């Protein structure tokens, strides 16, 4: 069962989302927040699997909510669902750890499948803003946006940890990495937690950025 929380200030959209999720046997709506402050508090209380997060909300905006929630509960996956595709919103939402960025024009079926994909470790970006994302990651590969890690810590990583960093950098989900390396998803999650701790990185997104910036995604790691 996928435990979903909604953070949305518009009542009509909240009600529509509740109806969509209520009809799905593999999903449970565990909470609804009407503003950003409530979203952060509910996330802490409920620890949902997925949060559908609006960007423009009273009290605390969606981008700040993502940052606060991911810092405290990195295991919670957040999908931005908004009408805004401004560069700043897209960049900051992804930088702060969002696993998806969707526009509210998508169909109910597309939304449901997006939730399932993200819950399995994937990431989804609305086609209308995909170009923005490509440009964003290209900019992040430049020296003025470097993610730095301790060289000693990097040298202390195992071959499996390096391989997982590489595969994350290539855009693979946890499920895909599981199939590639013949490990369980639990083992992959444990490896990722260890990598975050050793390299002092915030989340999976930063691992991916580091892999691209360091060239690790293109290296030949034996085995």
Structure, described:
The protein is of the alpha/beta class and 223 residues long. It folds into two domains: 2-137, 3-Layer(aba) Sandwich (Rossmann fold); 143-218, Arc Repressor Mutant, subunit A (Orthogonal Bundle), CATH 1.10.10. The chain has eleven helices and six strands. The protein has helices at residues 11-22, 36-46, 62-72, 87-95, 108-119, 130-140, 151-155, 159-169, 174-181, 185-199, 204-214; strands at 2-7, 27-33, 50-53, 77-82, 100-103, 124-125. It has a six-stranded parallel β-sheet with strand order 2-1-3-4-5-6, sandwiched between helices. The longest helix has 15 residues, at 185-199. It is globular and about 50 Å long. The termini are far apart.
In short:
The protein is an alpha/beta fold. It has 2 domains: 2-137, Response regulator (Rossmann fold); 143-218, Arc Repressor Mutant, subunit A (Orthogonal Bundle). The chain has helices at residues 11-22, 36-46, 62-72, 87-95, 108-119, 130-140, 151-155, 159-169, 174-181, 185-199, 204-214; strands spanning 2-7, 27-33, 50-53, 77-82, 100-103, 124-125.
């Amino acid at each position: 069962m996928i435990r979903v929380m909604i953070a949305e200030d518009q009542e009509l959209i909240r009600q529509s989302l509740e109806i969509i999720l209520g009809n799905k046997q593999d999903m449970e709506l565990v909470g609804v927040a009407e503003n950003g402050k409530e979203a952060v508090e509910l996330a802490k209380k409920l620890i949902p699997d997925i949060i559908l997060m609006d960007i423009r909300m009273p009290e605390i905006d969606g981008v700040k909510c993502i940052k606060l929630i991911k810092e405290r509960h990195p295991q919670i996956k957040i999908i931005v669902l908004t009408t805004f595709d401004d560069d700043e919103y897209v960049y900051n939402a992804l930088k702060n750890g969002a696993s998806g960025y969707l526009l509210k024009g998508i169909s109910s079926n597309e939304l449901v499948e997006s939730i399932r994909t993200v819950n399995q470790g994937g990431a989804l970006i609305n086609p209308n803003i995909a170009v923005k994302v490509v440009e964003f990651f290209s900019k992040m590969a430049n020296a003025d946006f470097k993610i730095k890690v301790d060289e000693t810590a990097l040298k202390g990583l195992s071959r499996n940890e390096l391989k997982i960093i590489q595969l994350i950098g290539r855009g693979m989900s946890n499920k895909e990495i599981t199939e590639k390396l013949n490990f369980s998803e639990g083992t992959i999650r444990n490896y990722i937690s260890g990598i975050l701790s050793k390299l002092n990185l915030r989340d999976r997104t930063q691992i991916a950025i580091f892999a691209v910036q360091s060239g690790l995604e293109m290296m030949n790691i034996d085995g």
